[in-house]
Design a protein that fits this description.
Elements lengths: L2 E5 L12 H14 L3 E4 L11 H15 L5 E4 L5 H14 L3 E5 L8 H14 L4 E5 L1 H4 L5 H7 L5 E6 L4 H10 L5 E4 L5 H7 L3 E4 L6 H12 L3 H9 L2 H6 L7 H9 L16 H13 L6
Parallel strand pairs: 1-2, 1-8, 2-3, 3-4, 4-5, 5-6, 6-7, 7-8
Helix pairs in contact: 1-2, 2-3, 3-4, 4-6, 6-7, 8-9, 9-10
Amino acid sequence: MRGSIVALVTPMHADGSVDWERLRKLVDWHVEQGTDAIVAVGTTGESATLGFEEHDLVIREVISAAAGRLPVIAGTGANSTEEAIRLTRDAQKAGADACLLVTPYYNKPTQEGLYQHFRAIAEEVEIPQILYNVPGRTACDMLPDTVVRLSQVPNIVGIKEATGKLERVQDILSRTKDGFRVYSGDDPTAIEAILLGASGNISVTANVVPKCMAEACAAALAGDGDRAHTLDAGMRDLHQKLFVESNPIPVKWALQEMGLIDAGIRLPLTPLSTDGQAQLRPVLTAAGLLEA
């Protein structure tokens, strides 16, 4: 899988229940807009507040809606190894193309603990697995040495590296086995990461401008830095303001304003504040996503 991979929101009704109709429509929209793959129930999909059954149901629904038109990567990480194995096994049974596994959060394992955690999941479930390092959210940083060790596990096929540190992307690419893929998890630096050799971007911004993100990633993958940078420049303010409050608060509000989803979001996350709306609205308007 290469290119623009949207970290899809999970649409919800105002009462917080999953909006299955809107979910299916979002998948159709991303297919039409040229998105290369979908991550279902990642951080942006509010994985932390979906129950086990809901988690599995959302993944199955996205796979069903995609109907083979683009790959689906299931978010199945957890801070419990046993729980992550269960979620990953369920995603494989549902027909996911791969799984995305975040580093365990809150319990702060050592690097050896991280290695043993991810190796155990990979040995239990044969589906291709992508590591996910986002220390800003998990308080757990998986260092390149550990990634290099894990890259030797046959079905660990890549990493979503969300630190935004381009030197780390280069380091991982230079020391992992051939075919091991690095994906950016940081929209502001994603195009540079792809030009350095990353395989794509697992993106929040792609939720609102999927076509532009897909075209920018395709240009970068083709080595056309000028076009990739030009397209990326048009998304620069979105990259920033979609994180004016904790993700996915701003992106869900943006999609609501665009008429693509309802207003639902689950506690402890709350709707975008008045100040956040005042910062994000003009950026959406400038991007042509809202009427002036």
